[in-house]
Design goal:
Structural class: mainly alpha
Shape: globular
Length: about 130
């Protein structure tokens, strides 16, 4: 991993991992409830099934999981998963005081992804 490119490894994992592996890793970083929220499902059972590979998330949820992992992976290069969980859920001044998790859940990943990644990079640089 290059120290000059923060988040490069997280990006590569987010793209190369199959979705079951990715959801499993994301669940370890963020917890099942937050992953369920990001994936727009009401039960953590769906997250467990996604991670086990017994159920496939909808295409839009997969795009959100890949984006969320890229962000979470980049942040955990410098911070503890508890800090990353709090960052995902807290109002973020760089995102008009909207929680990054809410933007990822409710927005088009292609549109909100660059904004959330920029906010994560700024947080990582300040930390």
């Amino acid at each position: 991993m290059s120290s000059t490119t923060p988040g490069l490894r997280a990006y590569e994992v987010s793209i190369r991992s199959d979705i079951a592996e990715l959801v499993g890793q994301l669940r370890e970083l963020l917890g099942a409830q937050l992953v369920a929220y990001l994936g727009s499902v009401s039960e953590t059972r769906a997250v467990r099934q996604w991670a086990e590979g017994t159920r496939k998330p909808p295409a839009e949820a997969i795009r959100r999981m890949r984006l969320a992992y890229q962000v979470a992976g980049m942040l955990t290069e410098r911070d503890h998963p508890r800090v990353v969980q709090a960052w995902f859920q807290g109002m973020n001044p760089q995102l008009e005081d909207i929680a990054p998790a809410r933007l990822i859940r409710e927005g088009n990943p292609d549109e909100v992804g660059p904004r959330v990644l920029a906010a994560a990079r700024a947080f990582g640089a300040a930390g």
